[in-house]
């Protein structure tokens, strides 16, 4: 590297400083100390030369000017073929002009993001306003599903808090689900909290609600309720030739911590029916009543489902237990 560094009391200045590792370089100018006045030009053509576990390239410019706690931030960044451990990103484009007291804006576009086995086709984020009060719009497409979020809020040095104005989910199986009322969202370095947020289905008879808290190095607590959701929309794979009909009603609450789940849930399957093909003929099994309870303690699942067939042809209890999510299933039945 090369460049000049000056010191004047608590303030430092940098002139044409060049840091280079292989084909990667960062050129820095400006000063810092009681305030910031820094600019950097980044040309990281091969990140793997600096971080062996990473890959890809990043190019762009960044500047910080103003008070240390609330500087004005400007940047233009682009990236390609980025990867780190189980994360990969095909393309990145981001720019921002953010100030503490004036109106600012920031935008980001991500192309084909992979996190392990999860793939996101594309994602976009835009923010307009000030740090203390701004509007946010985000969209994401993954698993043949489109997600659109609109929110407004502000940052007060310790946390971001605001209102989740609109949330919409759309895909071919579920159709369009969207929020009817706004909810509250708070995020800090050690906690994220979401008030009760409800998505309403296309016929206004289906509803799915969620509230919860995420604590850094602590548990994820949640409350979930589902009412009138078609069972056919649940991502499950019944045997070939079998079709499930009816609607699900679920109330669940619990905690997830250190890869262990503890939760309780009540489940009801209304207007239940099972259609199947038997000896090349289609038959239907009507189930007027199917209610149950599910308890999970440290990943161990215990559940009971009470089932009654049409015209009281038969009834019984079905019990299902799982020692761990990856263990074998133990199935018993005490049909009456």
Relevant terms:
single chain, 336 residues, mainly beta, 24-stranded antiparallel beta sheet, elongated, disordered C terminus
Task: Describe the 3D structure.
This protein is mostly beta strands. The chain is 0% helix and 73% strand. The chain contains no helices and 24 strands. The chain has a 24-stranded antiparallel β-sheet that branches. It is elongated and about 90 Å long. The C terminus is likely disordered.
Tell the overall outline.
elongated
Structural class, judged by helices and strands?
A: mainly beta
β-strand percent reads over 45%
- The residue ranges in which pLDDT falls below 50 over 5 or more consecutive positions are 328-336
The biggest sheet amounts to: 24 strands, antiparallel
Secondary structure: helix percent: under 10%
Count every beta strand, where a strand is a DSSP E run of 2 or more residues: 24
Order of helices and strands: EEEEEEEEEEEEEEEEEEEEEEEE
Structure described in brief:
The chain is mainly beta and 336 residues long.
């Amino acid at each position: 590297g090369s460049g000049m560094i000056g010191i004047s009391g608590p303030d430092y200045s940098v002139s044409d400083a060049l840091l280079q590792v292989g084909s990667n370089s960062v050129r820095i100018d400006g000063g810092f100390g009681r305030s910031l006045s820094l600019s950097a030009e980044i040309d990281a053509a091969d990140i793997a030369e600096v971080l062996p576990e990473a890959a890809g390239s990043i190019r762009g410019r960044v500047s910080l000017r103003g008070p240390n706690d609330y500087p004005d931030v400007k940047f233009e960044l682009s990236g390609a073929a980025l990867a780190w451990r189980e994360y990969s990103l095909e393309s990145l484009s981001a720019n921002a002009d953010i100030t503490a007291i004036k109106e600012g804006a920031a935008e980001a576009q991500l192309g084909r993001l992979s996190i392990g086995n999860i793939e996101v086709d594309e994602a976009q984020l835009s923010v307009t306003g000030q740090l203390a009060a701004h509007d946010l719009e985000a969209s994401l497409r993954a698993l043949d599903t489109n997600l659109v979020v609109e929110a407004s809020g502000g940052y007060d040095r310790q946390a971001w808090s605001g209102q989740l104005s609109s949330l919409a989910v759309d895909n071919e199986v579920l159709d369009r689900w969207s929020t009817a009322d706004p909810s509250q969202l708070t995020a800090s370095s050690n906690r994220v909290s979401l008030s009760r947020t409800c998505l309403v289905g296309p016929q206004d008879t289906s509803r799915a609600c969620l509230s919860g808290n995420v604590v850094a190095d602590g548990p994820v607590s949640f409350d979930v309720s589902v009412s009138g959701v078609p069972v056919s929309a649940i991502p499950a794979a019944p045997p070939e030739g079998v079709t499930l009909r009816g609607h699900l009603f679920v109330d669940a609450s619990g905690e997830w911590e250190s890869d262990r789940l503890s939760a309780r849930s009540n489940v009801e399957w209304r207007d239940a029916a099972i259609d199947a093909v038997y000896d090349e003929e289609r038959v239907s099994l009507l189930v007027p009543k199917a209610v149950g309870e599910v308890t999970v303690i440290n990943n161990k699942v215990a559940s009971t489902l009470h089932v009654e067939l049409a015209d009281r042809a038969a009834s019984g209890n079905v019990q299902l237990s799982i020692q761990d999510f990856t263990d074998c299933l133990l199935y018993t039945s005490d049909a009456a």
